[in-house]
Amino acid sequence: MELGMIGLGRMGANMTERLVSGGHRVVSYDRNPEAIQRVVDAGAAGAHSLADFVKQLSTPRAVWLMVPSGDPVDQTLEQLVPQLARGDIVIDGGNSNYKESMRRAAMLKQQGLHFVDVGTSGGIWGLEKGYCLMLGGEKEVVERLAPIFQTLAPPDGYLHVGSNGAGHFVKMVHNGIEYGMLQAYGEGFELLKRSQFGLDLAKISRLWSQGSVVRSWLLELAESAFEKDPDLSSLKGYVEDSGEGRWTVEEAIERSVPAPVLTLSLFARFASRQQDSFAAKVIAALRNEFGGHSVKRT
Asked: 233 in helix, strand or coil?
């Protein structure tokens, strides 16, 4: 299948490479020529402008946006949409607010364009392991894109969860849960670290991955992080939040859903910017391991 990819950062470039290796034709565009060259070297077609990008795609086109949420999405659409034709599909695979996705879907529908919002999880490991995809949009349109999703995702790794906005809503809650899980691991490992037993956190991470009820991929990443730096001494316990956790808490408030763990895990990230705690170092290390998120070094 043919797909256009706009945005070749950590996720977009890896997704492009995975699609190319899966036999798809991918036309790629990014404002950074070096990012384009990377995926061209991997077998993708490169475009030097949005006009050139659109020209290289056959109708009906499918264009995947992998750009930061908020204004960058709207700015990209503002430039892209006038160059598209009725029946073309726009896919937003970034971490957009679901309400914005609903608004964009309605706007594009008025112009005869389809919209699919894709909550994407997998981080920098997605190229190798595949991406978990949460899809929102018209069923017929989602099914038309099935070959793309089948290549990007591992077996049973994608699901059409509902109408426009549903994909990003599910991903928002997913990330809110992630906040709580990371906080629990961070606090637990800090308690282990402060014990009198001189515990090996890498070995305990590995142990807990073997049949324990708290086993998870995050524990595998914890083992990797502790093996590289047992005391995480090279990191500052400063943890960013990329937006979804805040939106999840706001949604919980709006719908009167008690979510104390998710809320406190968000507030703990705020606290991490005021003090250098080991728990925050664990979370920073795990985010760097699974998503390549930037960290602050000591």
From this structure: coil
